[in-house]
Amino acid sequence: MDTLEKLVSKFQERYGTPPEKIARAPGRVNLIGEHTDYNEGFVMPIAIDRDVLIAARARPDNQVHITALDVQDGQTDVFALDDISHHHEYRWANYVRGVAFYLSQYETKLVGIDAAISSNLPSGAGLSSSAALEVCTATILQAFTPRRLGGVAVAQLCQKAENNFVGVKSGIMDQYASALGERGAAIKIDCRALTYETVNLPRGVTVVVADTNKKRHLAGSDYNTRRMECENATMLLGQLLGKRVPALRDVSYKEFKIVAKHLPENLMRRARHVITENDRVQKAARAAARNDAAKFGTLMAQSQTSLREDYEASSPELDTMIDIARSQPGCLGSRLTGAGWGGATVNLVHNENVQDFCKNVAREYQERTGIEAWVSPVQASQGAGVVVWNQREGKA
Ligand code: GLA
């Protein structure tokens, strides 16, 4: 039975009828452009073929009854749409509540739902399972109302929920990729303008994700510390350059080099990462357009060096995983993806080597660390939407 059929049958078991609507929102893998989104720069993720699904039917009142099928045999949360506060126990519930809270401020005609969530996205792997849950929640709640927000507005609303309701100060990339990803392509997002360009990946290569299985906690202090360091570097660079610098995006590498020696060492490094990473995203987009997979891979490698040395966002497990990946035939590039400090790597691998790559990397990683890894090719998939599905037959 596939995931969708399983969800429909579990829904039926739980609520006694089939669902009326099903929404889907994918996770994402970022190919290049790390820690640039909250500096108003550029990122290049793909939405992946692993996702969160929410099946639902309307309720006659304004309550939300929602069961997380994959969390401890189905934890259920119940809340009213006009009275949303924090859930003190279930972490996952706050992503749902946060989105419902902000959506209810925009859309007064939200209806209550009975709902069930299922997901095949590993959580804590840096594949944006939280953003996918947020975007999926927005999609299912809106599926029962006539007024719909566009993809960018959905991403912004979900980011607001994560920043202010859940309390994690993430950038816009994950929610944006989940809402607006394109099938078969990466998207290069301008995180200031909130626009994107489609980037067709070089031919003959596959994106492979390797999860180190060392969980990362975004709410942890590293991410927030880096954000603060970037803000401080931005302010100092403005003073040193004598110009308005709203974000690190506004400093060229040439300008940076002139004044870098006057910055405290740690801020100099953080800023250098962000400024050079923005350049790498532009270069990667040009390499993809030329179908130059080797150059794309080299830029990924440079991104990793910068993340490890200047941003100090790698981890021993990530370094080991990348080391192993790079020694495999057909591997063009390997780097950490997402925030770092654990989680997954993204790899660019020649199509004919993918099978061996997955097998060998998982085996060698286990030999060297004693940890079982999840290594798998992923496909670029479409952003969130309501699933067209044959209710009578229970088939997608
Ligand atoms: C996490 C955040 C994103 C982004 C990345 C780093 O995934 O949610 O907004 O900042 O880290 O690139």
Protein model, in words:
The structure is a single chain. With 396 residues, the chain is of the alpha+beta class. The chain has 2 domains: 3-199 and 381-386, Ribosomal Protein S5, domain 2 (2-Layer Sandwich), CATH 3.30.230.10; 205-378, Alpha-Beta Plaits (2-Layer Sandwich), CATH 3.30.70. 42% of the residues lie in helices and 21% in strands. It contains 11 helices and 12 strands. The strands form 2 sheets. Strands 1, 2, 3, 4, 5, 6, 7 and 12 form an 8-stranded mixed β-sheet that branches. The model has no long low-confidence stretch (mean pLDDT 95). The site of alpha-D-galactopyranose has 10 residues, from helix 5. The site of alpha-D-galactopyranose (GLA) has 10 residues, from helix 5.
In short, what is this structure?
This protein is an alpha+beta fold. It contains 11 helices and 12 strands.
- The number of domains: 2
The largest pleated sheet is described as: 8 strands, mixed
* Cα shape: globular
CATH class of the largest domain: Alpha Beta
CATH topology of the largest domain: Ribosomal Protein S5, domain 2
The unreliable regions are: none
Please describe the topology of this protein.
Blueprint: H1 3-15, E1 21-32, E2 42-58, E3 63-68, E4 75-80, H2 91-106, E5 113-119, H3 129-143, H4 151-166, H5 173-180, E6 186-190, E7 195-199, E8 205-211, H6 221-241, H7 253-259, H8 265-289, H9 293-309, H10 316-326, E9 331-336, E10 344-350, H11 354-369, E11 374-378, E12 385-386
Parallel strand pairs: 3-5
Antiparallel strand pairs: 1-2, 1-12, 2-5, 2-6, 3-4, 6-7, 8-10, 8-11, 9-10
Helix pairs in contact: 2-3, 2-4, 3-4, 3-5, 4-5, 6-8, 8-9, 10-11
The structure holds alpha-D-galactopyranose.
Residues 34-35, 37-38, 170-171, 173-174, 338-339 line the site of alpha-D-galactopyranose.
